[in-house]
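Hey team,

Filing this mostly as a record. A colleague (T.K.) asked me to run one chain through the structure pipeline before their review meeting, and I want the input and output archived in the tracker in case anyone asks later how it was produced. No errors, nothing strange. Just documentation.

Input sequence:
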Amino acid sequence: MPELPPPPSRVAIARASLAAYPGMSPYHPSEPYPEYPFPDAFATDTNAPYGAVRDAFRLLGYDAERFGKRDWNPLGHLIRPGMTVFIKPNFVLSRHARGGDLWSIVTHPSVLRAVADYCWIALGDRGRIILGDAPQYDCNFEELSAAGGLEELKTFYAGRRGPSFELLDLRRYWSRWKHFPSLLESLPGDPSGSVRVNLDGASALESLPNRDLLYGAVYHREETIRHHTGGRHDYEISRTIMEADVVVSVPKLKVHKKVGVTLNIKGLVGTSTNKNLIVHYRVRPPSQGGDQFPDGLLTPVEQFLIATERWMYDHLLAPRIKPLEYLHRSIYWLHNHTTRKLGLKVDERKRVMDAGNWHGNDSAWRMAVDLLRLFYFADREGNLHDTPQRRTLSVIDGIIGGENNGPLTPDARAAGVIVAGENFVSVDVAATRLMGFDPLKLRTYQAIFADPLLRLGIERPDQIEVATDVPEWRNPLGNATDRFLGFRPHPGWIGHVEVDAPAGAR
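Output structure:
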């Protein structure tokens, strides 16, 4: 892959005609667009996401001379015939644990269908489209596929002459049992394997103290600590993604409990094939060297209970020994049926801020910055360069967004928007501001704009050009007061990320 210039910073915000998804896979468009490559396949119900994705490409000025004509090819400047295009959604979970809207958590396949069609047009009669992600370890991919009609989408493309279409679960294992890590079920994983990237001293984690307190994605902390110590900072990334000619990120517009928002940059967690190398927080409160929860939040009894939980994770779950896991479950059962009923418990309003779920988490943003660095600047063998190594496009699914208790159990927010562009930093900053937040109150963006390499050619947020047909959204980054979509932040971030939060908050 030749070294590339920074991607352009222009961002499009398209308002959909309806803040709703179509109900029938494979999500054909409901209008006969001139460039549409499958004129025998239309839907009778309204497909607003398809039209909004199309509008976003128009607003970006892609192939403007031919817009409205049969040969309009908006992605032709990025994608050439014969290339491999990887489309990466946010497929973190297969269900909403509190019975809410699944599509407030994960990218809806109707948005993916629109994106894939325009990739198909650009590829012409040859090439590969790969749709895939590495969800959380307890995501049931078959359940997610059934909910979104992914197999029907795959079958539709398979029946057409042209590029191949593949669907990949990049994980090596999954589990339907949250507190039984010995019961992991093996998966094929990425057919091309993984790429190991060591950021060494370039990692944002290098300056983080007390790395012996690190906690990753699952219970065995020693693995996380081992890969982020002694000057090494290792990540394992999907080789299929790293070898793709173009990566199209299609995240969800939603808030995040550990870093504030989850869009393209935080969504890069889905490129990792070993989630336990992904740092989430450090155990203990700040006064004890961690960022698990704020000082003063918990009573001494509550702090003892949470410390006991982490001790059990380390000693009863991390070893992956089934009898110890049953002992762990037995202790929990006993607590829930005896001492908890007597009032010996952690207040649920406080528990929501445990596990680094608050604005003072000083660990997770560093991991997100690391993922951005390696994604843009590591080549397909994991070697770092000073210029971008891959072509990118972002299309954020904000038809239904996620607010409040995001990213895993958010409240659905009918936002009705698509946000698109080629520069992940520009798109994320613009989307964050559209949500009603101040990007520079987020540590992720503070670090990016302090690093000339990471900001990908942008000096300041207000240099990002936003194209939209909605008058009040035309200069969101030059507007320091409006809340725009007014998303509710995660409870641990209230008063620290909103555009009208006190000066100095983060």
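Quick notes for T.K.: The chain has a mean pLDDT of 96. The longest strand covers residues 391-403.
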